[in-house]
Amino acid sequence: MGSPSSASQLREDPSKPLLHPTSSTRRYRTTLFCSCLVLLALVAVAIASTASSRSASAPTARPPSKLSRPVVIIVSADGFRFGYQFKTQTPNIRQLIAAGTEAEEGLIPVFPSLTFPNHYSIATGLYPPYHGIINNYFTDPVTGDWFTTASHEPHWWLGEPLWQTAAAQGVAAATYFWPGSEVIKGSWTCPPKFCPKYNGSVPFEQRVDTLLGFFDLPSGEIPALMMLYLEQPDLQGHELGPDDPEVTKAVARVDQMIGRLIAGLERRGIFEDVTMIMLGDHGMVGVCRKKTIFLDDLAPWVQIPESWVQSYSPLLAIRPPAEVSSSEVVAKMNEGLSSGKVENGEYLRMFLKEDLPERLHYSASSRIPPIIGMLGEAYTVVQNRTSEFSECGGAHGYDNALFSMRTIFIAHGPRFERGRKIPSFKNVEIYNLVTTILNLNGAPNNGSASFPNSVLLPST
């Protein structure tokens, strides 16, 4: 027989491995294993070094150079729609943006996107049902009393605004025409020196200069919180619409006031020490007569007497008599609006307040009428065709999810990173932001406790 093949020789003992490792193979594997360990160690060192380097270079709060404690100034420009900052040259606002932190796509108002509910949400961190100011004008269903923008009785104003929080902890605060600040409640007495009564004829320059003058007081008397309200560009936006040249002029004027404030702080050598927050309460959208819904057009389905209507536009609020079924009124109104027989009817939808989208946070108060109508953007509601209303203008108060209702948020100060852009957020977060900066114990609110740490630089 012939000699066995190589394959046969390799398989002569099936119990042994097919290939036998040689001593050179073992040395190779040992060397490779050691090399891998060394490489892994080097990678670990590199990662640790990078993390340490990043940690060491991460920005932290800038220490004050002159002021002995934190000071926050909040400036509200009423109706400053997000995007207005691009309508004209706004060098001072741009300076704040470049040297501070900006909500890149604007600040989100609470619903309804109206002046008094939003200014008080900024001040308290609460949604309107919880702070009580559910509209600019409304009635108390129990007493029948009307709330107006001149109502300063404390029973209307719930929650704890920033100035009250500060006063309760022995910290001086100053307000200049901020809605709600004239209300005496808790530890807040609205001291004349730091809380003038509203007078819309007071020039913006005088308001800014008054705040700057507070920094000339002895160190221990300087208010740690200052809140300033400016009526523009809201007035021009309502009268002429957001795209009118007069709005552009108003934006430029607001920018001049920001520049005046910055210059005054710089002259005193404290601009970098002071936290300055510029914001608005809501946006603005153009409205015209052709986008109108007339309640009397619903007469074939249901009669809506004028006496039932608490407000028309942009928030339609209806309170029928107790003997009338609100759910039936809503059903009949929606039937008529969706019939195709009511002019612009498809742009209004009626809700029982408890059926409103949860994101609106607009049901948990008896002050809110039981029936709420949500209008499409730029549409209005009036009682009938004889009602008086302008041909065109501007409005706000719509769904706060609409981009046109957004406003601005820009912050500069020791705990705000330079040139940083942050996502949009709701204005109920501002209360916690300010109390954190001022080292105050805040009252319970609807803001997130974690929000300040996501925005502020860590303190040194």
Automatic annotation (TrEMBL):
Protein name: venom phosphodiesterase 2
Any one GO molecular function term: hydrolase activity
GO CC, any one term: vacuole
Pfam families per record: Phosphodiest (PF01663)
CDD domains cross-referenced by the UniProt entry: Enpp
Database matches in InterPro entries: Alkaline_phosphatase_core_sf, Phosphodiest/P_Trfase
Region (Disordered): 1-22
